[in-house]
Predict the structure of CUB domain-containing protein.
Amino acid sequence: MKMWIYYGVLLLLSMMTHLVWAEDICTSSSSSGVLTDLRVGRYSQYCSFLIRPGGQGDITLSFSNFNYSSGIDTLYVYDGTSNLGVYLGAFSGPSLPNDLVATSGSVYILSNSYFPSFPSSFTLSWSQAEVSVAPVAEWHFDESVWSGVAGEVQDSIGSLHGLSINGATTIGSGKICRAGFFDGIDDYLNVSGIDNYLNTTASLSFWLKTSQSGNNMPGITGIEEHNGDDDILWGWLDANGQMGVVKGGGSSAQSYTQINDW
């Protein structure tokens, strides 16, 4: 699919399924695409474009064409969401710019031109690198029994081994192999050092089967500050049996339905 706009505007040939263009400012959330300025006999002053895919990887800009009137038209590039971001460069003249890399996850491009008698153009492509993060811990709960011995709940990746408290143990009827069994009253696992991972950006995946409701206490894992508001609660159950997450006593997110099966 192609779109040609002959009014001195920025033209986006997206590699996704949509096209976006504007004379003042436009935004793309695509992880890759092509941006072209094809002005013919007119000028476009302060025409800007924001690339903001939403991922965490670096964004690389590669120019395949660049011909801006030297000393008259200038293309500015910033690492960020506006011209207050980190300055990556200003480009004018016929020389093809080198590849640019933005590490913030966003790129702001500003095209500043004045005279229609000196037609300028550029074509660049962008792509955001995929970020793959290896797990830091994994617990299978495949031990035949837990008996309150230090390190008995094995972390198969690292050293975050756990200790069963108040009779927490394993059963053979897990979703995959065995599973941990907790009475819903006072059973839990103590994993020293897990707070170093829960108090920042993290993700957690697990299988859960329960028919209980709760009282806003940790159901899967968390850090509870006694009589404080600095809790980090992952997978707590409320009185309706819905699961939620919350950090620092602030806003929380909850499931729409009760958690009562795998």
About this structure: Residues 1-24 have pLDDT under 50 and may be disordered. Residues 10-128 form a domain with the Jelly Rolls fold (CATH 2.60.120.290). Residues 214 and 238 are 5 Å apart (CA to CA). The longest strand covers residues 59-67.
